Amino acid sequence: VSALLVQSTPIVALLPILARLFGYGEPTVVVSAAAITFLPTFVIVGAGLRRSPAGSADLFVVLGASRFVTLRYLALPAAVPSMLTALRIAAANSVLAALVAEYLMGQAGLGSVFADAQSQLLSARAWSASLLATVLSVAAFAAAQRFERGRSSLD
Known about the structure:
The chain is an all-alpha fold. It has helices at about 1-10, 10-20, 25-50, 55-60, 65-105, 110-120, 125-155. The chain starts with a helix and ends with a helix.
C-alpha cells in the first residue's frame, strides 16, 4: 500500500520532501529515481516469485522444507526472468526519473542543463539535452537487455 502511495504521488509534490530529507544534491536524485521505479519493479518481481513450476511447491511442502529453503531453492530461481525484466524496465525509467528530478531541483546534471536552456530559449541546447537523455535511457535499456540475454544463455 505504501509503495502505491509513493507511486501515485506526483514527483513534483514528492521532490521538496525528499530534498528536505536528503539535501539538494545527488542523494535526492537517486532516491527520487528509486521511488519512481520501485512499484513496477516490485510488482514484476512479486509476480515472478509466485510463478514457480507446477507441483514444485507441493514437493517442497511434502519434503518439509522451511519457508526460507522454499524461497531460496524454488521461488528465487523461478523469479530470475522476472527480475531481469524488471531490471530492463527500471534501467530506462531511472535515467528519465533522474532527469526529471534534476530538472525540478535545478542544481546540477542534465536536467538542470535542460531547464537552463529552456529558460534562456536556447532550443539547440534543450534539444541536445533531450537527445542525450534519450540516448542514455536507450543505452541503459540495451545494457540491461544484453545482461538479460547473457543470463538466459547460461541456463
